[in-house]
């Protein structure tokens, strides 16, 4: 006697939502035209200059330049990471994260540690220490102070954004 076979299929709403949300990746071109966006690009370009100027020397012989390298590379990587987050508007997909607070903490810590690194860099530059690397270290010191001022500006704009969110 013949049996009847019934096959029932169901679709998950999770997979439908996953495919719908992953197919539309946002891209915010206007972010680079804002002052925080321009400051972030400047931080990336000049921060790269700071650590490449030091990396091209025998910095490992002097612990002070090792500290400057750590701060410069660490915040360069994080700034690139945050630029990608802002450019792709990933922060809109993760609303559980308080992005204004994260931005304020990031920029504030970058400003403080970069200021310390810039002062250490400038005070460690000595022609008698190593005449061959003097120009690279002096240039890295100058650009470290410029990057510090960029992080100070972004800290200000992050504070304004954070304050406007907390007052609502």
Automatic annotation (TrEMBL):
Q: Name one GO cellular component term.
A: membrane
Instruction: Give the GO biological process terms.
Output: myelination
Pfam families noted in UniProt: MARVEL
The question of whether Cell division is a record keyword is answered with no
Its placement in the membrane is given as:
Multi-pass membrane protein
Transmembrane as UniProt keyword: yes
Q: Which domain of life is it from?
A: Eukaryota
Subcellular locations according to the entry: Membrane
Which residue ranges traverse the bilayer?
31-54, 60-85, 97-117, 137-159
Q: Which UniProt keywords apply?
A: Membrane, Transmembrane, Transmembrane helix
Domain MARVEL, residue spans = 31-163
**Single GO term (MF):** structural constituent of myelin sheath
UniProt cross-references to PANTHER family, sorted A to Z? CKLF-LIKE MARVEL TRANSMEMBRANE DOMAIN-CONTAINING PROTEIN 8, MARVEL-CONTAINING POTENTIAL LIPID RAFT-ASSOCIATED PROTEIN
Q: Can you say what this protein is called? A: CKLF8 protein
> What organism is the protein native to?
Jacana jacana
Gene coding for it: Cmtm8
